């Protein structure tokens, strides 16, 4: 990419797509020098698809076929993504584990947002788990994706203090707000590094 060309992003989602929206809003507000060339969902009913259509972003559904091995599904994803030649693949609530085939194909180009202060609380159900453990703090992390789940190099984190009356639901809302700030920021940090 030339030095000031917008970073070319492909975004993968499974659901609401509010993180995708936060990234698109940052682009629209000229706070992020990037362009989303494609949004992919593995679910046809993901609300993020409606958001993408409203924003005029090219979007497609790559639906897993019954009994299809993970690597075959991921090969279909690769084929959908490749023509767009992205600089970065942004996982924004994409609820599938990607195979080594996919990770190796796009090595160093895949990032994810995870609702915990990694390396603590990898995996699912993080809000309830931090409450059950009596933690004082919680947060969100943006990290590079490697073959080991939620273990790649961290790019940025946001930390909140847990209130005594927080529930899993209030934590989810509070963490979402943090995510919407740090995901565009993480992408900007990557842009700055590329230019340095
Ligand atoms: C976020 O909480 C993110 O941390 C997790 O999935 C959720 C996606 O939310 N990986 P949304 O679809 O972006 O609203």
CATH class: Alpha Beta
Kindly, what is the distance between the CA atoms of the first and last residues, rounded to a whole number of angstroms?
14 Å
CATH architectural type: 3-Layer(aba) Sandwich
Question: SSE order, as H and E?
Answer: EHEHEHEHEHEEH
What bound compounds does this protein have?
A: 5-O-phosphono-beta-D-ribofuranosylamine
Number of strands: 7
User: Multimeric state of these chains?
Assistant: single chain
Main sheet characteristics: 7 strands, mixed
The structural class is alpha/beta
Give average pLDDT, whole number: 97
CATH topology: Rossmann fold
Percent helix: 25-40%
* Poorly predicted segments: none
